[in-house]
Amino acid sequence: MGKVDTVTKAYMRKNNIFADAFNYLIYDGKLVVNPEQLRELDTTEIALPFGLRENEKGPSNDLVQKYRDILKSAVVMQEDEAAYILLGIENQTDIHYAMPVRNMIYDALQYGKQVADTAANHRKNDKSFRKRTSGEYLSGFYKEDALKPVITLVIHFGADEWDAPLSLHEMMGTQNEKLMHYVQDYQIHLIDPAKLMEEDLNKFTSSLREVIEYIKYSKDKEKLSRILKDNSRMLIDREAALVIKTITNTAIEISEKEEKIDMCKAIDDMLSEREAKGEIRGIEIGEFRMLVKQVKKGRLTIEEAAEDAAMSVEEFRKVM
Questions:
Q1: What's residue 309's pLDDT?
Q2: Full-prediction pTM beyond 0.85?
Q3: Are 60 and 34 in contact (CB under 8 A)?
Q4: What is the DSSP letter of 92?
Q5: Furthest CA-CA distance within the chain
Q6: Which of 11, 17, 50, 182 is the most exposed place for a label (fewest CB within 10 A)?
Q7: For position 275, what pLDDT does the model report?
Q8: Closest CA to 114 of 10, 11, 39, 41
Q9: DSSP per residue, 157-221
Q10: Phi, psi for 243 (deg, rounded to 5)
C-alpha cells in the first residue's frame, strides 16, 4: 500500500470524518449519521452465490474475494424508525475510469455475503430448516429475511475534475434507447473537490471541509492564499494536515507531537525556511509578501514585482 493510500485511509477511517462524508451525501449536511453509532467491519468481501449447499464440504471454485477501503455499519434514526445500513468509502487519488463496475462488484459481493451468512445461520440454528419451502431450502434465505442496504461513496482526493463515467450506462459502447432500457444501470456516488461550490463546502462540519477546499484550490494560488488568511478553521487535526501535505505536495512540517496544525503558520514557516536557504534573495520576506499583495490587488504586474524583488519572473511565480 502506497503512502497516499495509507494516509487517506487512516483519515477517512476516523468516525467523525466518515460520518461527515455521508451526512453530506445523504442528508445535505444534517447530523443524522452519528459517529458513535458506527462500527468498523472487515473489508474483505468474499461471496459464494447463495452460500454453500448442505452437501458441499468446502469452498467451491466460484469463491470471489475483493478488498474495500473502508466499511462500517450504522444505525440511522429518522421519523422514529431505525435503519440498519452498511456504508463503504473508496478513496481515489487518481481518476478511475471503471469505477461503476468496481463499486458494483463490491456492493454485489456484500449482498452475496449477507445471503450466505443468513443461509449458514439458518442451517446451523434452525431445526425446522428442512421443513421450509423448496425455494427457501434451496437458497437458504427465507421469505421474511431482509438485506441491509449498502451505500458506497467515492471520495476523489485530486484537484483535477473527475471526468470518468458516473454510471454503468455511460460505459456502454451503445446508447441504443431500446436496448439500454433492458440493461440494468449502476451509478456511483462521488465527492469531487473540483465540482463543489462554496455552499457545498459549508455543509461539511469536520476538517474534511478544509481538506477538500485546500485540494480544490491547490492549483489556484491566489484563491488558496485567500482561504488560508485569517481562517480560524485552518487550525486542523494532524491527520487532515497530513492528507493535505501528502496529496498536494505542500512542503510543510508536521510534528508527531502536535494534535492540531495551524496551516497558515505552517506555510509561513515554510516560506521563512525557503528564505533562510536563499530561495528568496535580495529582499526581506515581509517586503516580498507586500509585493505579492500588490500583485493580487492589481497595483503591480508580476513582472514589476519580480524586478523589485531582484528575481526572475519564474522565480517570483514559484515562491509566490
A1: 74
A2: no
A3: no
A4: E
A5: 90
A6: 182
A7: 60
A8: 41
A9: --SS---S-SBTGGG-S---HHHHTTSPP-B-EEE-GGG--HHHHTT--STHHHHHHHHHTTT-H
A10: -60, -45
